[in-house]
Amino acid sequence: MAKSAETVKPKQDDRFIAGVRMFQHLKIFSGNANRPLAEDIAKYLGSGLGAATVGRFADGEINVQIDENVRGCDCYVVQPTCRPVNENLVELLIMIDALRRASAGRITAVVPYFGYARADRKTAPRVPISSKLVANLITTSGANRVITMDLHAAQIQGFFDIPVDHLYAAPIILDYIRGKQLKNLAVVSPDVGGVERARAFAKRMNAQLVIIDKRRPRPNEASVYNIIGEVKGRNCLILDDMVDTGGTLTKVAGKIREAGALRVYAACVHAVLSGAARDLVEKSALEEMILTDSIPVHALAGGKITVLSIAALMGEAIARNHQGKSISALFV
């Protein structure tokens, strides 16, 4: 009796042959947001990207055409809604609509980075909940399912009226950090909102948990950072879901070094890196900044920045979804 695919790791050639047989009705498409990641996912699945034209008309409107038959197929559109956010979001919506009108059997929006996630609640009178609006747009466009990674707020899953598979990059970062064999490690949450993420990571690493209490006494006055936990004589890893301007992250790194930390690392899933964030990181007290390619940042790798690939994790999630297998088993 042949062993199951879960107990035998196939050779690369065997993976390709099995992929053609198992995934003959699975098609991966990509917009322009992060095509290299989509290509790596398709390669993991033993196939190429589906044929599609995603361009612009003369006036800037988005022009999409699916250039192959998708009738009855299980289709996945890989498109993070990163910068330029609105362009990439509309590309995603129009590609989903094109697949729906081409009679695709099932359409899954694969959104490694979900833009507008920080607008998940009303923080002041008369402001929108933009992440709910984006969820409605994706659903209305024709998506049957969403696969995403490390949402800024986990409750955003509830904004969708379709199933959501919420993946985590933690296993990828864990493997990398374990490979560094850091002694006396402390995992640092840069704010109270990230405590749950940092606690789970620290538990798996058998590390100390440290929390940064960040306060702004008055508007436009510099924040006060209080360190809850012991960092003196420890190697510290600041863990967050994203890095945008890099201001808070680099300030936290400086405070930790001043408090006696040996070396300070940072691991952030989504590398938004707005403005002069790259320069701030390079000039900061950080030893290394660990990012993933949920947003295309390979060109920024080097110096203090290390980029890890999420293609295998995303590809495995797509394969399991296609086969009706458990995705949560990936994180046990």
Key attributes of the depicted protein:
5-stranded parallel sheet, 7-stranded mixed sheet, globular, single chain, 332 residues, alpha/beta
Estimated share of beta-strand residues: 15-25%
Order of helices and strands: HEHEEEHEHEEHEHEEEHEHEEH
User: Major sheet, described briefly?
Assistant: 7 strands, mixed
Q: Identify low-pLDDT runs.
A: 1-10, 15-23
In percent, how helical is the residue content?
25-40%
Shape: globular
Calculate the terminal CA-CA distance, rounded to whole Å.
Answer: 28 Å
Question: Which structural class fits the helix and strand makeup?
Answer: alpha/beta
How large is the count of helical segments?
9
Number of strands: 14
Radius of gyration: 21 Å
Walk across the major sheet and give the strand order.
10-9-8-11-12-13-14
Mean pLDDT across residues? 90
Question: Can you describe what's shown?
Answer:
- By secondary structure, the protein is of the alpha/beta class.
- It has nine helices and 14 strands.
- It has helices spanning 12-22, 35-44, 85-101, 130-141, 170-180, 195-205, 247-258, 277-283, 311-323, and strands at 26-30, 52-56, 62-66, 74-78, 106-111, 145-149, 164-167, 185-189, 208-215, 224-228, 235-243, 263-271, 288-292, 305-308.
- The chain has a seven-stranded mixed β-sheet, sandwiched between helices. Strands 1-4-5-6-7 form a five-stranded parallel β-sheet, sandwiched between helices. Strands 2-3 form a two-stranded antiparallel sheet.
- Strand 12 (263-271), helix 8 and strand 13 form a beta-alpha-beta unit.
- Helix 2 crosses helix 9 (311-323).
- The longest helix is centred in the N-terminal third of the chain and has 17 residues, at 85-101.
- It is globular and about 60 Å long.
